[in-house]
Amino acid sequence: MNEAELRRVCLARACEEADPEGLIIPNGWRDRASREAREALGDAADPGRFLALRSERLLERLVRERPALASLQRRLRPVPPALWVCALAFVLGLLADALGTRRQVNLLSFPLFGLLGWNLCVYAALAVRSLAAETGESQLLERVGRMLAGLRLRLGGTTGDVRPAAGRVLARFAGLWFARAGELEQARLQARLHLGAASFALGMLVSLYLAGFAFAYAATWESTFLGPDGVQRLLSIVLGPASSLLGDPLPGVAAIAALEAPASGDAAAWIHRWALTALFFVCAPRFLLAGLASHRAGSVARSLTPDLESPYALRLLAELRGDGFLVRILPYSTELAPGTSALLRELAHELFGTRAQVRVCEPIPYGAPAPEAVSGEGASVVVFNLAQSPEREVHGGWLEKLLGAGGAGEHNGLLVALDERRYRELADPARVEQRYRAWARVLGEVPAQAVRLGGESDADALLEQARRVLAPAAVGASA
Question: In angstroms, rounded to a whole number, what is the distance separating the alpha carbons of residues 39 and 37?
Fold first, then answer.
């Protein structure tokens, strides 16, 4: 998936999650876009392509029927274009007035001396940071992006009841985009910063030569702590490589002493040395680093993928998944209420696809053996009643036998669900949590985790929890 497609997918998802009222993209548009994407795919079941086609259909209609809101996806651009960065930095370098108005070049307080020192510190910091595993640039960019999006929203002409919804959409878009493309934006930012530093240095060099062409400058120096020999050694270190390339050796100690203020000498040779030093140690490395960062950004851009395991994607992609997949719902020593059965069926179809066959089995008696493995691809949803006290030998041992029988083998999944509904009617919240912790300890020895049925979680939170505790993951089966 390319960057433009991912941006559309993130914007469509942001609209649907942050605007449930359908003020920006009405619910009817969403259903129609899903149908059109499925028809365009035909028999192909490519999840990423489906999301790309669906978001494209949604946003095409948004552009056509609501042009005032069509620019939402362009309002989150935290990294400015490279040309703007280079032009602004170059102009600032020109205005820096590297030579000043005194018609003298102080060899020890020359602005290019500070520029060189700053860039060497940056190179050292980059070398140290390359050893660290994590940086905070992506999070910083996300915060900047949110602020820019809010500002553009206030200045962009969206009014009335749509503005609050548009604000929520942009905030959600920022989170979704940087979660999938934060590394891309970080690499672009680094490239822009390096280009800006190189352009600023070039601007200073151009300013230096323009001023030297129009006016006569003299070279001098003065220092409280350094004498002529110290100054000569320092300048040899800093300007020695440039002097060698120019074929113009640095003056000796006596010649340096002759330049000490209030004396002075011709500045042309010194300007050439400093210009070549800046090109060699500032511009060239910065352009190289910018090229490396741009290359990394291009590599990341070619490998962008949407989040196919989020509740949003699982629900949209449910109709594409589940062919030949059997899901057994196995109540262990408990009767499922009609509402619980319906909830588990819906959860199974969202997890494994609407094409999956979901079978609610008869309750398994306490102490009965584990059922045999399913043939082909499948999953088992085991339901325990939280009102029962968990027993390691009984409940934990039964789960281990189910796993050993192939009920959750390489191509099968096991989802454990704790039905809390009846127990919540009988016990206070503290007792419920205490019982849940007891079950968690027993299941942890299997090992397994459980999704909680009957709590206060919304549908998305329940689906996300089920996807996270499914072991081994079989969400993408038959996709």
Answer: 5
Looking at domain 311-469, does it have CATH number 3.30.429?
no
Distance, in Å, from the CA atom of 253 to the CA atom of 236, rounded to the nearest integer, reads 11
CB 313 within 8 A of CB 467: no
Question: What is the enclosing helix (H) or strand (E) of 106?
Answer: strand 104-106
- The span from the CA of 10 to the CA of 474, in Å, is 24
The domain limits of the chain are 3-74, 82-136+150-301, 311-469
Question: If 0-12 CB within 10 Å is exposed, 13-18 middle and 19+ buried, where does residue 233 land?
Answer: middle
Query: Average pLDDT of each block of 10 consecutive residues along the chain (479 residues)?
Result: 90 85 82 88 82 91 73 65 93 77 75 87 86 57 59 49 70 85 89 95 90 84 89 91 90 92 88 91 95 94 90 88 88 90 91 90 90 77 93 90 62 82 87 92 89 80 86 49
166 vs 412: CA distance, rounded Å: 42
Cα distances from 475 to residues 22, 308, 373, 376, in angstroms, run 29, 10, 19, 15
> What number of other Cβ atoms are within 10 A of residue 321's Cβ?
23
User: CA 373, 379, 385: angle at the middle one, nearest 5?
Assistant: 95
